[in-house]
């Protein structure tokens, strides 16, 4: 018995000792992994702070240089972008730089407007009245947009300065409604800014700036509401309902007011107004899709529109409406199909009776108005094949080669609208060699851009081989095609990029197109062969130093066509021609090396653009980038 108790005591002692040992081990166990992780996080945070401090110092230094830039556009843009990048770390300095940027922007826009008017005058002299121009950037709007994103009060301050410069004071809603569809310059600037903020996803701030202009029936205000509806239908519909109420009680509202209001529901982003028998149209979207508004809102539009359209005609000689009797007649013919779709029958009958009465009073020109404008966006247009055949029939009856050439160009543009290679065939039939060459130089790159967008590399490469493309256009198409096929055939992709570099080197050394093409090559290598991207960017820097006028931004393809019967200018921004994207990515790879590369630019413009891009890569949150 004593022996058993002794064994039990020994077992209990051992268990107790083991438990003590375990607890002691837990208390004294090393926490090396946790400590190591904490240290690494602290080191990373410290390194980030140091990099942000260096980036801030880089921008402050650049801002001192930027204030002395001779080019006012460059000065304004640089200061505004530095302010934008600095705002999160130094809002007061940012506010100061925005004001300096505004001062430079005022001078820049004034200089640009003078040059623009002179260019228009010279083109009119050469062509006998027609002109096709590439509009310069609106620098004040760029500064305003960046400032307003951070500080509403500062944005309002700049808008007030626009008024003070006598561009045009903001008019009241009543005054603006005397000419529906037109806004004062100040309200127009306000809505342009609001649309830019809206597209950037800053809905609340966009509404703050748009508010004063949303009591006015105009193309711009209704266009904004249509854009707003794409993001927030409830808010947009509420404001449209308020605009209906304002229009209903406003004695200045007329037929054109109704036509503009109808666009919100039935033809978003498309507007048609009439001044007598003259038609004014604008369309901001290739497709027209009616808004799916509630029946109550559609009914409110019908009530407002009918009340305005059925107002008694003014006495002879006292009509001060923007449309006149002829315009009112044409608006009613245009909007009546909307009423016939879902308005109460008695309302439709009243409008039809009023229209019949007007028919006896309007001019013959109004009665014979081209049906295409009256039904544009209301009814489906003529089938493309029917329109094409009508032009072919006119070619058969053409009496001169100039008339035939004009019709073949018209057919080419019709085919281009459908993105068909047949457009090239029509151009080839133009007899005038100069006209043919000019049309081909517009058609071919337009098709190439479309094929790149749709990732149709075979068709795009076909145009590189046999189309009328500049070396810059060829380089861009080749790099984009390389990116398209990189995942399936990297070797072929590299060959295309090398071919793009060869095309780039055929450009004159002094031409700004050369560094743009080489930047496109560097951007493609970033995707296809990252090890070569530094050397490719270095080549672009060297080329930039020999190219007069290279700014490092505003990369675009400008396609112009101008003849006696037709003028067309198409601007397409090409991000791959700009320094911002490539230097942001390089800074993420190696900050110091990217800074050193940016310092290699001899000109103020590209050096500023690259430096700001590098600083943004550090200062902006990764999610935002």
Question: Descriptors for this entry?
Answer:
single chain; 625 residues; mainly alpha; Serine Threonine Protein Phosphatase 5, Tetratricopeptide repeat; two-stranded antiparallel ribbon; 29 helices; 4 strands; 68% helix; 4% strand; disordered N terminus
Based on Cα principal axes, name the global outline.
Answer: globular
The order of strands across the largest sheet is: 1-2
CATH topology of the domain at 470-619: Serine Threonine Protein Phosphatase 5, Tetratricopeptide repeat
Radius of gyration from CA coordinates: 32 Å
Q: How many β-strand runs? A: 4
Strand-pairing-aware structural class: mainly alpha
Low-confidence stretches at least 5 residues in length (pLDDT < 50)? 1-17, 19-29, 166-179
Mean pLDDT: 84
> How many DSSP H or I helices?
29
Specify the CATH architecture of the domain at 470-619: Alpha Horseshoe
Termini, distance in Å? 81 Å
Largest sheet: 2 strands, antiparallel
Describe what you observe in this structure:
- The chain has 625 residues and is mainly alpha-helical.
- The protein contains 29 helices and 4 strands.
- The strands form 2 sheets. It has a two-stranded antiparallel sheet. It has a two-stranded antiparallel ribbon with strand order 3-4.
- Strand 3 and strand 4 form a beta hairpin.
- Helix 19 (401-417) packs antiparallel against helix 20 and helix 21 runs antiparallel to helix 22 (457-466).
- The longest helix has 37 residues, at 91-127.
- The protein is globular.
- The chain starts with a helix and ends in a 6-residue tail after the last helix.
